[in-house]
Design goal:
heterodimer; A: alpha+beta; Immunoglobulin-like; seven-stranded mixed beta sheet; five-stranded mixed beta sheet; about 25% helix; elongated; B: mainly alpha; two-stranded antiparallel sheet; 16 helices; about 65% helix
Amino acid sequence: MAITPPSERIWWKEPIAKIELIWIIIAFVWGLIMFFMMIYWHGAGEQNLSSEAYQITPVQFSQKAEAMIAEYTVREENGFPVVRPPPGSDVYLIARLWQWRPILELEKDQSYRLHLSSMDWQHGFSLQPVNINVQVHPGYDLVMTIRPDQAGEYGVICNEFCGIGHHNMVGKIYVVDQGGE
Amino acid sequence: MANTAEFRTCPTTGFRVCLNAEKLIKANAVVAVVFLAVGGLFGLLVALTRWPAVHFLPEDWFYLALTAHGLDVLLVWIIFFEMAVLYFASAVLLNSRLAAPKWAWSGFALMLVGALITNVAVLRGQSSVMFTSYVPMMAEPPFYLGIILFAVGALIGCFVFFGTLVIAKQEKTYEGSVPLVTFGAITAAIIAVFTIASGAIILIPTLLWSLGFVSHIDPLVYKTIWWGMGHSSQQINVSAHVAVWYAIAAMVFGAKPLSEKVSRMAFLMYILFLQLASAHHMLVEPGFSSEWKIFNTSYAMYLAVLGSMVHGMTVPGSIEAAQRARGLTKGMFEWLRKAPWSNPAFAGMFMSLVFFGFIGGISGVVMGTEQINLIMHNTLYVPGHFHGTVVAGTTLAFMAITYLLVPLIFRRELMFRKLAQWQPYVFGIGVAGISMFMMGAGTLGVSRRHWDMTFASAQLPFDYPSAAFLMMGLNGIFAVMAALGGVMYVVVVVGSVFFGRKLATDEKPSYPEVPPQAAAVGHYGSSETLKIPGTAMLVGIFFIAFVLYYFVNWKYLSEVWPMS
């Protein structure tokens, strides 16, 4: 029994039942498949998070973001600037208690280098309803190249607990057809 | 130290039970159940708040209750119960005296004091930082201090366990190798030492930081090391509850492991590879290389998952073999149909096994896939997954073995048998519901740790799909059911322990009823003739579910915005 010492003293020389051996082999091969699937996706898949990141102070990040906001703001909405940076450019999204700043307006099927960083505590970038979720840290600038492939209005929810106003931290990203408004 | 320990002989099992160990098992188990009750109540409050139609607590109380829920059940209930399991698997199963009982009691006291300090800190309202307490969000110093004291106490318990193993070996209280269940407990204790070391490395500087002696804790470093504790401590749970599965299979069926070698190798895989799991929490953090993520998140090519899949076959397989040896050989599933489903120890154990594999296990591997994590990180999918592992798996298994420990260790007859009989089903199905509906809501994007999914007071509006609201309502209903199951458990256990009829010294408990065990179970015969077709079928169904669900999620991933 499992609560008494093994009945065969030399238990490590007992033969393994065939059915156990088969299962071990299946499970091991399945593990290899899952392992190589991740590597395969780096080549064949289109959804891979970049490992590009830089250390940055909140002040430095905020300056870059505000420069972008000053240059490319097209209108205001609920007190937030709506910014339409050119395709291919560096786009900054500030996470802070309890806002995502600014609202971004991106063109469909264009790539942008999206920079994420926090001014204070950790936040979670949760793009909805697409459901892309990335952690945002203070002191680190995470850079990911994104290519929105569907026009529409998207919510940016904070999904890392960041204090009492956490549930009010909602931002927005517009994706518009190329050249359109 | 002189051998002054006193013993009694168990009339059911024949074990020589060290009374020091018995007292410690009782104390740890009782405190564990108290914290389960408290933490479970907080959990119910959380679920009622996330039920959109009820939305029970105000926001500050919600975040407070969520912090307390995580601490009290994930940490305090489980570790206290694991201390009881460690003392049981060493002193009792090896017929040995317990090493250094005074140290064991001081460890117990430290854990209790630490748990109380942290609870008070949380209830004061200034430490609603969640169980994870990610920096730079800061709690009051006692919050960290309490956890550190708790961890030191648990570490002392681990060393008492190791000391007991040494004593048992020296005093030759058993023959040959340690039993498989003890081997599983050793696995748990080794992982626990690693876990507590990680906790100390990060929480001591964090305490100093909250006291003002350290100016800065890097949030990425914190998270990487904190999860060396946070995730590895879940591997203590896995090792411990797998050991409990084997123990229940042995105690209820007289089951013998199909192969000692295979089961022990599977535990060894846990020791070697489970510690890499910190990476599961770092898959969408800035700056980690893909090589690091892939190697670590897969526990080096899924070798620890391999361990769990092996246990997933050998545990039901040993039960099937024992049942077949008793003559339940008709068809594929007579052994399972005629299993003692009204015995709460078996019912809880078997549901724990099934839910841990199908719900907690599969979702964990899928979510821990480097790229797929992008569509799940920090959504409700995450708590959905770990309620499948830690609650439907660990907690249910611990509840199940309590029904055996109350008569055997507490020497009390179980009260409220009807309640006990239904308890695993009410709790198990409730928790399975919680897990699946939270995963469903997470797939629809709903954030975890979030007070208001309608965003009523946010500056910018956003609406989750209506299906997500339905999921959260169902989650609430099943949470009420699970809470009911929790209350049933506490009533049965507390009632029996304090008011149950005392068993006479040489009286064998009559409940839970154990089916007559065939003498043949001591030996399964040659490995060539071992037949477990029912288990092979169950494992096959599991494997198909695993593969389908895994690739469905790659399909989901392929539909989101391209990124690189």
